Amino acid sequence: xxxxxxxxxxxxxxxxxxxxxxxxxxxxxxxxxxxSVLCDAEVAVIIFSQKGRLYEFSSTDMQKTIERxxxxxxxxxxxxxxxxxxxQQLKGESEIMSQKIExxxxxxxxxxxxxxxxCTLDELQEIDSQLERSLRNIRARKAELFMENIEHLxxxxxxxxxxxERLCHQMSGQEKEVVTHCSQNSQISxxxxxxxxxxxxxxxxxx
Length: 207
What we know:
single chain
């Protein structure tokens, strides 16, 4: 036989309501016990009947569980409050940053020569002073870079001169060796010619 679906509403019959309460209470306490044993969880169940009778189950000390619950609930509320405060602080900082960015962009436009019609004489003088300071800084940095490039080129020139002198010295040594070698060859050739002249012809026959 198929069991009919129970509507979730108050049972009007007092006897049926009491029977249902007893069955479901026992089932709930049994499930709580099984959950604590199977999953090693800290479980506490508190039930008050319609007449005010207390039924409870706790896998550990009920009072400690309740204290732990209150501590956790208070901590959660504190965390939520701190989160809201941090969020508001971040929003305020974001608005301040947006205003600063807007002012910087407006200042840049004025330095580029845009939106000057609304500027007062003092503001125009301040812009002129800022441009003068910027030009001085740019020229100083430009001169510094020029000097660095000049020093770099001078150092490169010194290296090239040293390399050139080394090569010239090396070539000079090689030329000296060639000249010495040629002189030695010429001397040996002369000695060979002398010996050849001395022994050319038949020896004289004497009677």
